[in-house]
Automatic annotation (TrEMBL):
Pfam families: Cupin_7 (PF12973)
Domain (ChrR-like cupin) ranges: 29-120
Organism encoding this protein: Pseudoruegeria aquimaris
InterPro entries on file: ChrR-like_cupin_dom, RmlC-like_jellyroll, RmlC_Cupin_sf
Descriptive protein name: ChrR Cupin-like domain protein
Length: 171
């Protein structure tokens, strides 16, 4: 007879080809080396870099006021504000701590951190590519999961954690 105790863990093996979970107890780390520089006074903390499905999840940390970037998303983006606040020039709302933001495919916006914000940290899941554009939509550059992985490899090597440190975030 099978035991139906709800506290009994699953008793069968996981699928042979299933990937390991990612558990990051210090998602907002004290160790500054875990923040990867993206631009002056802008860093990201990788959480999941999914190269097989083309998305990434990270914390974005900004310690400067003003325009961060103007960009377009061909796929959806999800955000959750942990600290500070920000807004888009193209909308009349402001993202504050505890706010969830859904950005639909096709959205183009200009992210601004207000003058009185010392530090902003937001969790983002970005799917596909993020295209940096000028005000008329001309593409100036892009990011994808592969450019994020390369930034991590370079940074983690430079700070002594080693190129392979990024592997813990890749699926």
């Amino acid at each position: 007879m099978k035991d139906n105790d709800p506290r009994m863990p699953y008793q069968l093996p996981f699928p042979k080809d299933a990937l390991e979970e990612i558990v990051i107890p210090d998602a907002v780390p004290q160790d500054e080396r875990l923040w990867v520089p993206q631009a002056e006074n802008v860093w990201f903390r990788p959480l999941c870099l999914n190269r097989s499905q083309g998305y990434w999840m990270n914390l974005l940390k900004v310690r400067k006021a003003g325009v961060l970037s103007r960009h377009r998303h061909p796929q959806p983006v999800h955000g959750f504000v942990l600290k500070g606040r920000w807004h888009y020039l193209e909308h009349d709302w402001e993202a504050t701590p505890g706010a969830y933001v859904y950005e639909p495919p096709g959205e183009t916006h200009t992210l601004v951190v207000p003058e009185d914000v010392e530090e902003m940290i937001t969790y983002f899941q970005v799917n596909g590519v993020m295209c940096y554009v000028d005000p008329w939509g001309e593409v100036l550059g892009y990011e994808d999961v592969f450019t994020k992985i390369e930034l991590c490899r370079k940074h983690f090597t430079e700070v002594g954690l080693g190129e392979d440190y990024v592997e813990r975030f890749i699926r």
